[in-house]
Each structure stands twice: as structure tokens, then as C-alpha cells.
Design a protein that fits this description.
15 strands; elongated; alpha/beta; six-stranded antiparallel β-sheet; seven-stranded mixed β-sheet
Length: 310
């Protein structure tokens, strides 16, 4: 059976590698064009392309996969099954109907929850106790196709976007390998999704979304810090400089009447910040242009001039 794989980031790369390790014949990889990276803005291939090149698999990087020429390029790869994971473009009906066994997507949520580009971060932002992976037969909608299989895992209280990303990539690969045989032998059960998602749309993460609003309660801010680690990262402005907060904890002391964003005090462990409800204490921080360090290390080398964060 010929498989064409479509995906771009680390999440997808692990799934492609699992297909190769399971000896599936991957006749082509479709991935996003190389993007500028680093200070020199040099073009850098994505993780999926790197794995494809290591295995001498033909790579196709269309700007628009819906164009007729792009569809014909994929057709020439002779796919019996197309597997999609975090590809990043809308796929046309002509392409969806191309392979014998259809086009399936590995999506990092328990559909119909968290349709969209960033289900992992949104699950943490919303304080979910569990999440998981769904294998879906793709249709023309956005994550609205029939569900074939799902697998659930708990979300730990200290889970970050990065740690959950890694867990779901492994889980997605395992579920995919368990699901493909049922698609091929005809035993797969296709369960239609409801028209409406059970949650808000999981929109793509943007850097500015990491800006901390100190008027929110400490628990909400904590979830943002965890969800946005390692990207786009949660940050605030200290003395007109961006200060990333990589990890933190909530102080149990009661708080009333203090202005949100105010640094209440400092000690040898770090500093204590008023929020809309509760006190938040950064554990790891990183000032713009500096390395990541503990809050205590940061205070030993930096004198805070303005005790109000914005």
C-alpha cells in the first residue's frame, strides 16, 4: 500500500517516522515551504522534510495545495492512503477523493472538541483534566469529518504546551498504526461528528497572545504560562523590557485591594505579583536578550526600577 504523508512540524515528524518504522511504503511527502529562521533569516526545512530527506522520499512543497498542478503532483505519487498531521493548508475535495482508502487526519484533541490549529495549547488554557488524539476521515470542513478512532490521556497539573505536545505526538503515532489496518480491511467504523464543536475554535497561536493580563486571576495566568511554553511564551513588560515567565506558582496568601501587576515584595526566592485574584510568583524568567534563569538568580543580578508590570 502506498502512503502519501502531509505534515510539517515536530508533531507530524514523529508520526511520519512511526509509519516508516512500521515499514509502510511512503511514496511522497507534502510539506510547507521552507521558512526563514534565526538572526540571518536563512531558509530552514521543517522537521517532516528533514525526515523525508533522510529516507530519500520525494518531497513536494506547494505554496497552495489546492491548485490543479499541486493535485496532479500528488496524484503522480500514486497514493492508496493520504495521512495528514498538522499540515497547515486546506485540502481540496479533489485531493480528498484521490486515494483508494481516503484521506485521514491525526488531530490532537478529542473531537469534536478543539477543532482548529492549536488544540494542545487551548486544552491547557481551558484547564481540561484530559485530552487526546482523534483519527478522522477528512472532508471539506475544518476538522469536521467522521471520527474513526480516539485515545485519551490525562492532563497533569504541571503540564506545559511542550510536554503535552510530545505526549500526543507519541499517542497519535500509536493510534494511527492501530487504526490503518481497520481502514484497509473494511472493519473501521466511521462516526459522524455533530455540526457544532463542543468547545470554542482552537485558533492558531500568535506571539502577542502570550502577553499577560494581570487583571486576570492567578490560576488563569498560570494556565497561560504553562500552555504557551515553549511557544509563543507568556511574557510581561518590566522596566519597558519584555520578561518571559517560563514557570511559576501561586502563593497561598490571601490578597485584597492590591493593583494587578504590582510587585508586592521580593525575597531570596523571587518576587510576588498581584493579580486580579491571588498572588503569582515566577519560578523561571528570561529578560529580553538574556538567558533563562530562576527568579532568585534574576533578582541577584537585576535591580527592578518600576515595581509595576504591564
Amino acid at each position: 500500500m502506498n502512503v502519501v504523508f502531509m505534515g510539517t512540524p515536530d508533531f507530524a515528524a514523529g508520526i511520519l517516522q512511526a509509519l516508516l518504522d512500521a515499514s509502510y511504503t511512503v511514496t511522497g511527502v507534502v510539506t510547507q515551504p521552507d521558512r526563514p529562521s534565526g538572526r540571518k533569516r536563512e531558509l530552514k526545512p521543517g522537521p517532516v522534510k528533514e525526515i523525508a530527506l533522510q529516507h530519500d522520499i520525494p518531497v513536494f512543497q506547494p505554496t497552495k495545495i489546492r491548485e490543479a498542478e499541486a493535485v496532479e503532483t500528488v496524484r503522480a505519487m500514486n497514493p492508496d492512503l493520504i495521512v495528514v498531521a498538522a499540515f497547515g493548508q486546506i485540502i481540496s475535495k479533489e485531493l480528498l477523493d484521490l486515494p483508494k482508502y481516503g484521506c485521514i487526519n491525526v488531530h490532537a484533541s478529542l473531537l469534536p472538541a478543539y477543532r482548529g490549529a492549536a488544540p494542545i495549547q487551548h486544552a491547557i488554557l481551558d484547564g481540561c483534566d484530559s485530552t487526546g488524539v482523534s483519527i478522522m476521515r477528512m472532508n471539506e470542513g475544518l476538522d469536521t469529518g467522521d471520527i474513526i478512532s480516539v485515545r485519551e490521556i490525562p492532563v497533569s497539573e504541571n503540564e506545559t504546551g511542550g510536554s503535552l505536545f510530545d505526549k500526543l505526538a507519541v499517542l497519535g503515532a500509536e493510534l494511527l498504526l492501530d487504526t490503518i489496518p481497520s481502514i484497509v480491511d473494511g472493519s473501521a467504523v466511521y462516526t459522524p461528528q455533530p455540526a457544532e464543536s463542543t468547545t470554542a475554535y482552537a485558533s492558531m497561536m500568535k506571539k502577542e497572545m502570550g502577553h499577560i493580563d494581570w487583571s486576570e486571576d492567578a490560576e488563569t495566568i498560570m494556565r497561560k504560562i504553562r500552555a504557551f511554553s515553549p511557544w509563543p511564551s507568556a511574557y510581561t513588560m518590566l522596566d519597558k523590557k519584555a520578561l518571559k515567565i517560563w514557570s511559576a506558582h501561586i502563593e497561598k496568601a490571601d490578597l485584597t485591594g492590591e493593583e494587578p501587576g504590582k510587585i508586592l515584595r521580593q525575597d531570596n526566592r523571587g518576587f510576588y505579583i498581584a493579580t486580579g485574584k491571588g498572588i503569582l510568583c515566577p519560578d523561571e524568567v528570561q529578560l529580553a536578550g538574556k538567558k533563562k534563569m530562576t527568579a532568585a538568580e534574576f533578582l541577584r543580578g537585576y535591580v527592578i526600577r518600576d515595581n509595576h508590570l504591564v
